[in-house]
Structures are given as structure tokens and as C-alpha cells.
User: Which sequence fits this backbone?
């Protein structure tokens, strides 16, 4: 690990200012992904700003009847919050499907959104990776690609975003709230928060330099049956091959977001009109334009079948 | 206050550094560029509250909580399995909650209350989970055991405080420690000897649910 200087800050403004003071500065909160990457020198900040003391660890009801989740609310606390369990069960379910209890106890809401891909070529510094070393190539394209993306991919990168929580937030139309040095705030809808890889896979979000996440806001509850179905190689503590976050209303309408298939949570609002017609109709629109390798082509039918299973479960629960 | 920390490199650290140098000559240019070159370590003073005692240490900012506990405070009960958050052997309690100490910096825990396996029980006065692991033979090599026990202690608290899990059927009802729940909630602790069934029996006995059938 490269040596670094370390600073604790007390307010979000102080954190945003610290981000602008010297190059190679990183914010640390839970640290469960950043430290892993620092040990491998995939991340090598010269300065760390510890934001654990800035007080963004609370949840409040918004004037619109939604829920504002502080950036530092731990994954365990968010999943266990009585209001989230009652009004946004999709979010609880997605969080509980991710990582282990030890990691959820540390990992934060903002950190979960900012975690990096678990693509093995990104993690192996002996391999080319356009995300880790822009211009070095993509080892996965013609290599081991079973776990990789099939939607929105580019010749530069076929990595997936690993978060379960983000899939739920996308289906729930969450908005990411940020602050910059000087106090300017911004609201970024989840749909626009993560980028597709294109030619710049090292740029993963639309956050600007020095911009700090302060909260994630959920609109008022939408009800319906909410299901998170994660398909993985073992029953617990593994990343998704495919996951489906669903909100299904009594009249058969609803929302579907999919994880494990793209560089961001994959949702196509226009495809959701086909939801009452069943999984096949929906999946053919949702997964139109899929670009697969021989190893990950299974993900396209797996998405359809997982949606079918979710719709079946929704009918049983209604 | 005690002063067990020292700034001398241990033999192990010297070996690790030697290995890194050797490895870096074999790495391609891509990785070499990221290697530390002439950047001085940064030392900082940290006071850790471990098992009810305050310890003030001068630590390299890079020191993980796990390395501070093992290498500086010589509390070697917490184990380094993978050092990347996947195995759970380094699980300790921080302010009563379980976490992996390998993925946290010691410097981030100023003022936190840290409990390691050494603080849960002693050979003379075992924690009920320690006694149950002995009774049920909940280990073979024993390397994962301190992490398993710290994790289980916090897991039982999580059940008591109503934290749901991936397998909890009803999110709105208080969770119960069924066999399924126990296995799901302990999935962050790997046992390469696969003593899982005895580990589960030991934990279930302490939780008062020994009669749960195995799945």
C-alpha cells in the first residue's frame, strides 16, 4: 500500500473542501472496498479524508412523504430500519442479499453506490484493464467473461456494477444528493448517476471532481409487491450473476430493474409497459441489443426466467 | 495505558517487503508505475480501547485494525485469513457490532470500543460460545474459530435487536434463529475444514435453539 496522510473532518463542507486541497485525495467511510483496492494499489491515494464523523448517518422523512437517507447510514441500519422494511421492502431485500453481515455493518449508503467492479481483470494488476489503466485493453472481452455484462457494453469494457442496493434504488426512482466545495448542491437521479463504459470505463459515475454524496432520497412509497431475486453461484455471500428488483402492482403494472448485466443497474422504463404481458414480452424489450460472449450468453435467458419467477411470486403474494 | 507497540519492522514485515520487491521486478510496466517510490510512511498517534484497556500507539497510517491488534498489541487471537474481507477470520466487535478488522484502518478507530476474542472470555472463564464450541467440537484446525465466535456473539445480538436477514420470511416480524437463519447470518465466516455442522450446533445451543433440524 502506498503511504498516505490522513485527516478526519467534522462537516460535509469541510470534506468537500479537503477534496479540492490536494490531488490524489480519496474519501473513506466504511472502507470495505477502498482498502481492499488500496492493498492491491489499484487505488493509491496520497491523502485520505475520513468522513465517518460528519453526521450524515441519519434518516428523515421528507416533506413530500419520502425518505432521505444520510450518506453514512450503514447498510445494516438501512436494511433494518422499520420504515424501510414496511414502505420500501425492495431496498431491505436488496441490501440483505449483498455481502456479509460484517461488511454490511461497515458499508455505507454512498460507499455502496461508489464501489468498484469485481471484474477479475480489474483486480489483477498483471492483466490489461481499461478501467484500471486506460488504454491498456480489456482482458475480459476474449477471456474469462462468464460473470460479465451483456447490456450497454463497449469494446473497452464489459464490467458489471456489483451493487444490489443500487438495483433497488434504481427501481425506486431514488435521487442522489451531493455537495461541492463552496456549498453548491445537486440532485442526481439514479438513472443518471452511473455511466455506461463507452470509451471511458474509468469514469463510473457522473460525480464531478470534488463532489461529495450527502444523501440518497426516496420518493414517497409506491406500494405494490416488492421482490428482490438474486441468482448467484452459491446461496449466500456472493455477487449476482443476475438479479431482478421488482415492484408489481395489483393491476399487473410495475417496475423492473436488473443487476449483474451492465455497468449500471439496468432498467428500461419503456419496456415496463409490457409487464402485464409477462416475462417474455418484457424481457425481449428490456434485453434488446444484448451483446454477449460465449460464456455469458446464458444471462439473457436467465433474466427472462428470473423475471418469470418474480412475477409468479408476486401473483402468489397479492 | 500500555506501550506494547514498537516501530521496528518485525521479521514478518521484512519478509513481506522482500517479497514485494521481488514480485515487482516480475510485474509488467503497468503495475510497476503504481508501486511506491520514495514516499515516506506517515506515522500517527492512535489511542485504541481494546477489551476495556486504552492503548496509545504510534502507527503507520496504513496499519489495518487487524495488524494493530496482532502485531502491535500482540492480541493474536484475531486471525489473518485472506486479508481482503472474504473469510471472516479477523472478525472483532467494534462498539458491539461485528466487522472484519482487515478492511479497516486502525487510525479510524480512535475512541471506539473494540472487543477481540481475548476480551470475550479467558481460559479460566470461557464465554458461553467458547464453551459450546469446545463441547461440540466446532473446529478442526481452529484458525477460523476466534472469528466464528466473535461473529456469533454479535449475530445473536442482531437477532435480539430485530435485524432481518436474506432468509427472513416476514420483514415485519421479529426474526427467529432457525437453522436457515443461523447459516445465512454466519455466511461471512468461512471454515476451510468445513466444521460447519458442529459450529451451527454450538451456536444453536447457546441461542437456546439446539433442537432445530439440520437442512
Assistant:
Amino acid at each position: 500500500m502506498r503511504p498516505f496522510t490522513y485527516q478526519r473532518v467534522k462537516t460535509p463542507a469541510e470534506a468537500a473542501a479537503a477534496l479540492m486541497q490536494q490531488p490524489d485525495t480519496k474519501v473513506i467511510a466504511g472502507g470495505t472496498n477502498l482498502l481492499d483496492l488500496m492493498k492491491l494499489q489499484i487505488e493509491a491515494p496520497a491523502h485520505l479524508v475520513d468522513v465517518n464523523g460528519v453526521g450524515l448517518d441519519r434518516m428523515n422523512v421528507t416533506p413530500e412523504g419520502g425518505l432521505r437517507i444520510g450518506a453514512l447510514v450503514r447498510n445494516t441500519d438501512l436494511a433494518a430500519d422499520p420504515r424501510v422494511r414496511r414502505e420500501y421492502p425492495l431496498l431491505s431485500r436488496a441490501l440483505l442479499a449483498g455481502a456479509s453481515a460484517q461488511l454490511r455493518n461497515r458499508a455505507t449508503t454512498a460507499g455502496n453506490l461508489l464501489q468498484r467492479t469485481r471484474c477479475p481483470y480489474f483486480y489483477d494488476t498483471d492483466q490489461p484493464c481499461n478501467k484500471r489503466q486506460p488504454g491498456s485493453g480489456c482482458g475480459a472481452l476474449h477471456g474469462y467473461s462468464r460473470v460479465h455484462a451483456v447490456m450497454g457494453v463497449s469494446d473497452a469494457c464489459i464490467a458489471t456494477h456489483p451493487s444490489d442496493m443500487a438495483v433497488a434504488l434504481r427501481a425506486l426512482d431514488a435521487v442522489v444528493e451531493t455537495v461541492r466545495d463552496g456549498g453548491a448542491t445537486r440532485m442526481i437521479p439514479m438513472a443518471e448517476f452511473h455511466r455506461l463504459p463507452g470509451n471511458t470505463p474509468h469514469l463510473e459515475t457522473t460525480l464531478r471532481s470534488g463532489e461529495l454524496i450527502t444523501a440518497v432520497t426516496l420518493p414517497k412509497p409506491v406500494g405494490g409487491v416488492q421482490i428482490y431475486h438474486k441468482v448467484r453461484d452459491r446461496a449466500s455471500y456472493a455477487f449476482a450473476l443476475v438479479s431482478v428488483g421488482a415492484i408489481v402492482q395489483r393491476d399487473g403494472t410495475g417496475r423492473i430493474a436488473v443487476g449483474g448485466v451492465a455497468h449500471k443497474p439496468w432498467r428500461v422504463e419503456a419496456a415496463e409497459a409490457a409487464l402485464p404481458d409477462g416475462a417474455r414480452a418484457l424481457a425481449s424489450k428490456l434485453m434488446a441489443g444484448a451483446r454477449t460472449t460465449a460464456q455469458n450468453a446464458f444471462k439473457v435467458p436467465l433474466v427472462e426466467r428470473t423475471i418469470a419467477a418474480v412475477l409468479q411470486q408476486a401473483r402468489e403474494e397479492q | 495505558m500500555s506501550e506494547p507497540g514498537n516501530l521496528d519492522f518485525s521479521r514478518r514485515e521484512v519478509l513481506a517487503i522482500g517479497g514485494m520487491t521481488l514480485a515487482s521486478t516480475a510485474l509488467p510496466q503497468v503495475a510497476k508505475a503504481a508501486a511506491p517510490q520514495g514516499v515516506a510512511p506517515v506515522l500517527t498517534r492512535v489511542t485504541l480501547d481494546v477489551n476495556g484497556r486504552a492503548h496509545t500507539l504510534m502507527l503507520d497510517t496504513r496499519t489495518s485494525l487487524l495488524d494493530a491488534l496482532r502485531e502491535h498489541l500482540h492480541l493474536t487471537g484475531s486471525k489473518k485469513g485472506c486479508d481482503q474481507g472474504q473469510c471472516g477470520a479477523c472478525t472483532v466487535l467494534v462498539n458491539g457490532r461485528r466487522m472484519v478488522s482487515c478492511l479497516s484502518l486502525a487510525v479510524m478507530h480512535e475512541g471506539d470500543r473494540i472487543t477481540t476474542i481475548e476480551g470475550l472470555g479467558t481460559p479460566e472463564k470461557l464465554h458461553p460460545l467458547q464453551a459450546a464450541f469446545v463441547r461440540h467440537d466446532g473446529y478442526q484446525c481452529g484458525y477460523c474459530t476466534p472469528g466464528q465466535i466473535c461473529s456469533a456473539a454479535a449475530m445473536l445480538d442482531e437477532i435480539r435487536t430485530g435485524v432481518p436477514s436474506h432468509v427472513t420470511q416476514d420483514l415485519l416480524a421479529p426474526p427467529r434463529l432457525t437453522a436457515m437463519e443461523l447459516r445465512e447470518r454466519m455466511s461471512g465466516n468461512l471454515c476451510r475444514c468445513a466444521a460447519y455442522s458442529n459450529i451451527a450446533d454450538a451456536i444453536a445451543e447457546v441461542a437456546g435453539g439446539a433442537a432445530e433440524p439440520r437442512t
The helical segments of chain B are 11-26, 29-32, 65-72, 117-120, 128-136, 145-160, 179-185, 196-207. The CA atoms of residues 42 and 60 of chain B lie 5 Å apart.
